[in-house]
Amino acid sequence: MGIFKRPRLKSKNRKSSQPEMPEGLWQKCPACNEVIHEMDLKQALRVCPKCDHHFMLGSRERIESIADEGSFEEFDANLVSVNPLGFANYESKIEKQREVSGLNDAVVTGRIKVRGNTAIIAVMDFKFFAGSMGSVVGEKITRAVEAATKEKVPVIVVCASSGARMQEGMLSLMQMAKTSGALARHHDAGQGYIAVLTHPTTGGVTASFATLGDVILAEPKCMIGFAGPRVVKETTHQNLPDGFQTAEFMLEHGLVDRIVERSAMRPTLARLIAFFSGKGNPLSADA
């Protein structure tokens, strides 16, 4: 009987009359909804040409945007996380993160030159486990700082993190003290440390090495804080100020020294590296 017949379902594989858009060719700005060609976005260092929104930048792209061409020498590329607490499915999750991101963990470290001056750099990458800080992240940053101290050169840490990695428990929290101790010895040796805060910089990273810089730079409108705004509001039962936990708010309240557009980050870092190396004035555009 016809009334009991199921209606025919439309096939998902049916060819549409509309031409298909190649995946990944266009990006939509989350701030202004501008649709941007991926090539244009890459050439602009992943900054929206319409509203200046700073998209997240991968660690390799970040290093390429800062370092002199061909000068980057990577450290400790093969350090990988283990599962010290026997956390369920942690190994498989880490392996999946490696496949998706092309990284072994959430930070890339090494030696660079910026306009001819040497520095040691550590760049966190949010696309690996949300930039969370586990034992490998803490170890690699600590080794990078120690290398900078030994070589008597400045160290740069570019931060982008959701905080400590819960799958490693107390071992993750220990990295806060370990990295801070290395930076204290670096400071005692008279060497400079430049922290660059990008979106987002939160949790144990904010509570340790991210906010210990001799100079603290931040990208525009990036989120900086320990806990998220919703958690803070629910804990304090107070309405938060406008722009709470943005780079602009932190600049106004003294946590950040300067907000730097991504296009200006390389020359800014070049002047600071030259200054900490005793070769220039950070206020000079020619440094």
Automatic annotation (TrEMBL):
Instruction: Tell me where it resides.
Output: Cytoplasm
Q: Which GO terms describe its molecular function?
A: acetyl-CoA carboxylase activity; ATP binding; carboxyl- or carbamoyltransferase activity; zinc ion binding
Cofactor(s) this protein requires: Zn(2+)
Which GO annotations describe the biological process of this protein? fatty acid biosynthetic process; malonyl-CoA biosynthetic process
* Pathway terms, separated by semicolons: Lipid metabolism; malonyl-CoA biosynthesis; malonyl-CoA from acetyl-CoA: step 1/1
Assigned keywords, A-Z: ATP-binding, Cytoplasm, Fatty acid biosynthesis, Fatty acid metabolism, Ligase, Lipid biosynthesis, Lipid metabolism, Metal-binding, Nucleotide-binding, Transferase, Zinc, Zinc-finger
Chain residue ranges for the region called Disordered: 1-23
* Catalytic activity from the UniProt record: N(6)-carboxybiotinyl-L-lysyl-[protein] + acetyl-CoA = N(6)-biotinyl-L-lysyl-[protein] + malonyl-CoA
Zinc finger feature spans (C4-type): 29-51
The highest taxon in the source lineage is Bacteria
Q: Where is the composition biased (Basic residues)?
A: 1-15
Q: Which InterPro entries match?
A: AcCoA_carboxyl_beta, Acetyl_CoA_COase_Trfase_b_su, ClpP/crotonase-like_dom_sf, COA_CT_N, Znf-ACC
- Which Enzyme Commission numbers does its entry carry? 2.1.3.15
What is one GO cellular-component annotation here?
Answer: acetyl-CoA carboxylase complex
Q: Which residues bind Zn(2+)?
A: 29, 32, 48, 51
Cofactor stoichiometry and binding remark: Binds 1 zinc ion per subunit.
The subunit field of the Swiss-Prot or TrEMBL record says:
Acetyl-CoA carboxylase is a heterohexamer composed of biotin carboxyl carrier protein (AccB), biotin carboxylase (AccC) and two subunits each of ACCase subunit alpha (AccA) and ACCase subunit beta (AccD).
Query: Matching HAMAP family, A to Z?
Result: AcetylCoA_CT_beta
Q: What does this protein do?
A: Component of the acetyl coenzyme A carboxylase (ACC) complex. Biotin carboxylase (BC) catalyzes the carboxylation of biotin on its carrier protein (BCCP) and then the CO(2) group is transferred by the transcarboxylase to acetyl-CoA to form malonyl-CoA.
Q: Which family does it belong to?
A: Belongs to the AccD/PCCB family.
NCBIfam families, A to Z? accD (TIGR00515)
User: What name does UniProt use for this protein?
Assistant: Acetyl-coenzyme A carboxylase carboxyl transferase subunit beta
Q: Which organism is it from?
A: Sulfuriroseicoccus oceanibius
